[in-house]
Amino acid sequence: MQATTRCTSYLPQLPSGIHELLSRSTRASTRSSHRPRWPPLTAHFSHAGLCAGGVQQQRSITIKQLDHGRVDRERVVILGSGWAGYTVARQLDSRKYQAVVVSPRSYFAFTPLLASTSVGTLEFRTALEPVRSKRSKVNYFQGWADGVDFKNKTVTIEEAVDDPTQGLSPTLDRHAGKTGSQREREKATEAKKGRLFDLAYDKLVITVGCYSQTFGIPGVKENALFLKDVGDARKIRNRILACFEAAALPTTSDEMRRTLLNFAIVGGGPTGIEFSAELYDIIKEDLARIYPELIPFHQITVYDVADKVLPMFDANLADYAMDAFRRGGISIKTKHHVNELRKGPPAGSASKVDDQNACFTLNIKEQGEVGVGMVVWSTGLMMNPFVAKALRDIPELPEAGVKFLESGSAQDKSGPTGWVVQKDAKTGSVITDDRLRVKLEAEGVGEDKPQAILEDVFALGDCAILEGTSYPATAQVASQKAEWLAKRLNRDDIEQSGFTWKNLGVMAYIGNWNALFQGSGGGNISGRAAWILWRGAYLTKSVSIRNKILIPMYWFINWLFGRDISRF
Amino acid sequence: MQATTRCTSYLPQLPSGIHELLSRSTRASTRSSHRPRWPPLTAHFSHAGLCAGGVQQQRSITIKQLDHGRVDRERVVILGSGWAGYTVARQLDSRKYQAVVVSPRSYFAFTPLLASTSVGTLEFRTALEPVRSKRSKVNYFQGWADGVDFKNKTVTIEEAVDDPTQGLSPTLDRHAGKTGSQREREKATEAKKGRLFDLAYDKLVITVGCYSQTFGIPGVKENALFLKDVGDARKIRNRILACFEAAALPTTSDEMRRTLLNFAIVGGGPTGIEFSAELYDIIKEDLARIYPELIPFHQITVYDVADKVLPMFDANLADYAMDAFRRGGISIKTKHHVNELRKGPPAGSASKVDDQNACFTLNIKEQGEVGVGMVVWSTGLMMNPFVAKALRDIPELPEAGVKFLESGSAQDKSGPTGWVVQKDAKTGSVITDDRLRVKLEAEGVGEDKPQAILEDVFALGDCAILEGTSYPATAQVASQKAEWLAKRLNRDDIEQSGFTWKNLGVMAYIGNWNALFQGSGGGNISGRAAWILWRGAYLTKSVSIRNKILIPMYWFINWLFGRDISRF
């Protein structure tokens, strides 16, 4: 088995059945000497490793086999399967590197299309790409990264195959509320049960992303819906349709109808605006024809604490969007603050319903209590607990792969008692140099602390920030960094030049087949042309050919026949 | 608004945007006098009722509006949205009848394709059709039928919009364990809360179907997976993939791998066999390439208490199938009985895993304890609790619509103290005459009890049986009955002749692109030709054009790129 043979053929293997189709007779006689050729699976795949692509296509299932399959390649462990992690994994040269992805989620979510899937304009699987597939050469373990031993270069992984929250974007530390010693005891038990294990790395790529920030507002984590993952989109889709179906019951009062069909979106950035736009579309194009009497009862409202929505867009584009929304009956309430979100109807409501799950109440500081059917929370990023807890103190540095930087005070390699990972004071993101390598500084007080760089540990995506820059935490930045890093590793030329972000502009869909596009050079487009650009851009970027076929197919079918409204 | 105008146009309305696309400029200037035409939804649909099709397309949301929309049509209330109920609803002439479907499930599940969706050969929505859609003229309430007042001709409905079990086939009476008086008090509360309401009917069509029968075997209801609805298929799909992903973890022992990848199917009828075949396909075509080292650990086993599987097929066809399965490594264990199904590994297992949810143990009478990753239960029908409880005694008959039959003893209309719905002694199905009308008999002891027919109450599908026949409880019988009934009602000629079933044969997919077909005349086909027939038949029968496009699209895409294995 040649480890260096690269699999270049991307044609699917024809199922063995095709050959049979051409050669066998198809009518079974009572006593046929002709027996079906039915390959038992064990014999059929005893030499799976020798198929096109050789050893790279095998999935190692023990660390030993992973080690064996490594041959003389470096192992790059990638934590996370989002824009940054998935892009790095796919683009690393498998002849040079053995890529191993560790993530609680076995797929990459194509976030720009999530809003479309959350109302049924597209199906959920068209907005995701599996990490593990027949074609990819990437190894994968389903689990959470629990800690890193920088000296011995290992990552501790907590398996997560049956995690009930998979598919939902995380909002709270899954070990929140446990003391340090509680967690240590738990880890010892998990290790005995085989649910915790260590994985050695040569290079580590930290792309764990961020959690959704709820600002400690009571009830939001429990009662709001988020929109960062496919499971979130599915919950939203079911909720919208359930609200209409409940409002359609003959025993629902008009007041409860208004409550159920009051949809609130908190956060006026592109995610919130795009979701509101998609919601407007499904109501206008489908639900208004299926439930025409309910339409007068509905309302869509976008809340934001800032002065205006879509702050990254120029004023004229943002105004265009707000104008369009107002004409569509979508209410935009800027400078509004959420105090609380709880189950049940507002106090003083005449509703007979004391069923706590029927609806929710938003408590807005400027407005008081508002009964709603659904709240989509699309604002705020919270630093990942892994970054906050596991990437902190580094008692001992690895023997190789550390680059010490000149510091103001006398350079003293052995002086500092310990090192800490540098974090951004405001966001808590990991600070990296312009080669995306994690920066350390010596513990202790003082301005000119000695600094160092871990040459084998990289951090990118939402959880990291390049020192001296203020690149936004967006998919565009994450995927550019990831492509740059993969290229540098493949060519072994990371010392040559650092990463710089090329601003390709921002886009947002605003409903009714209209969009906004703002190029970095100042070129602005709005309306139908921007919409065509928006759909085209996402189509070319969508990762697999499979989805490049399915996405326009669904756009067409849903336009022709309407969106499906079944819940299951 | 003409109530008698029938909507004949099936072309979709072009979104208003198309006209805009042709006429508007697309570049926004800083101060544009050109403003986006954004129709507020309320104004846009104020005359929704006047679109093509007139009043029939409105969905009435109060009983009053339903009554108002009735005009001079008879109201046909259909309980259930399966093969029988959905077919009747769609085929009733909306000029003569106002069809109202009451079902806990807002869609019709195309059951022959469920096995394909349960492994990802097709997507779930390709195997369902919504009851409520832009095109259908059918009214719908999401709820359970709770009781019938035959005298006053009303049905009591318990709303079920947020029922957490929706999408899953029912296995137990949702009010099991409650005494009669407990249930009465509960109903009084529900009625106050608006969750229980009455619906009047002119004709009633009872098509509530059956539940899955678990024969009281401990643990089956809680731990087995079923395959009668789309939610079931989704759970199965996620479970298969989770078993492989868990087996792929480096800390899983070989013994646990064998347990996790041991898939048991209980029931050797077409459903069980087809599911086993689909499972074989996904393992051979996709999972064997993604997890090649795991394949030696897997096993598929079909258990049945009978002597042989596929009893409705001729011996040579059944043998062909069993032969094919054996060659594929699928084990068929006839004359085996399940004693119990519980969580956790078998007793005496060396597995470190004490996690009760990791795997299951099947206790087979002839074999002892067997560790399994998943059990699919595809055998046995249990009579629907609605039929068992609500269709029983009839204290008072309606004043019209009852046909008394001659009986052996002197005919005495006022004599019998009460009437009961006739039920089949063995299955508990409702007995109907050959016009599918529910049969009653007088209470009391004796052979020649007076009999009567409720002329306005029909029962068909799995929950009913035509007297003197032994038609199987299949989709074919249910849909033929439903089409016959709808035709008779539309033409008002039900007295002319009774229903007879035309046996169109049986088909079953047996994996690896092979199938069986047995025509009623004795024409048997097996192998590839039967497979083509099998796929063709389901394609032509699949109800909507939307799915006629999507289903072959998915067959093609999954053949070319492999099935998706993501879970969310």
Fraction of helical residues of chain A: 25-40%
Stretches of chain A where pLDDT is under 50 for at least 5 consecutive residues are 1-60, 408-412
State the assembly state of the protein chains: homodimer
SS summary, helix count of chain A: 15
Distance between the first and last residues' Cα of chain A: 47 Å
Going by helix content, strand content and strand pairing, the class of chain A is alpha/beta
Structure description:
- The structure is a homodimer of 568-residue chains.
- By secondary structure, chain A is α/β, with parallel strands linked by helices.
- Helices cover 29% and strands 22% of the residues of chain A.
- The first copy, chain A, contains 15 helices and 27 strands.
- In chain A, strands 1, 2, 5, 6, 7, 8, 18, 19, 20, 22 and 23 form an 11-stranded mixed β-sheet that branches. In chain A, strands 12-11-10-16 form a 4-stranded parallel β-sheet. In chain A, strands 13-14-15 form a 3-stranded antiparallel β-sheet.
- In chain A, helix 4 packs parallel to helix 13.
- The longest helix of chain A is centred in the middle third of the chain and has 21 residues, at 270-290.
- Mean pLDDT of chain A is 84; it is low at 1-60 and 408-412.
Features:
homodimer; alpha/beta; 15 helices; 568 residues; eleven-stranded mixed sheet; 22% strand; disordered N terminus
Secondary-structure topology with pairs:
Two copies of one chain form a homodimer.
Chain A: H1 17-23, H2 41-44, H3 63-70, E1 74-79, H4 83-91, E2 97-103, E3 107-109, H5 114-117, E4 128-130, E5 139-149, E6 154-159, H6 180-193, E7 196-200, E8 203-206, E9 211-212, H7 220-223, H8 230-247, H9 254-260, E10 262-266, H10 270-290, E11 299-303, H11 315-327, E12 330-333, E13 338-343, E14 360-364, E15 368-372, E16 374-377, E17 381-382, H12 385-389, E18 393-394, E19 402-404, E20 419-421, E21 430-432, E22 437-442, E23 451-459, E24 464-466, H13 475-491, E25 506-511, E26 514-518, E27 524-527, H14 528-541, H15 545-561
Parallel strand pairs in A: 1-2, 1-8, 2-5, 8-23, 10-11, 10-16, 11-12, 21-24
Antiparallel strand pairs in A: 3-4, 5-6, 6-7, 9-17, 13-14, 14-15, 18-20, 19-23, 20-22, 22-23, 25-26, 26-27
Protein name (chains A, B): FAD/NAD(P)-binding domain-containing protein
Organism (chains A, B): Lindgomyces ingoldianus
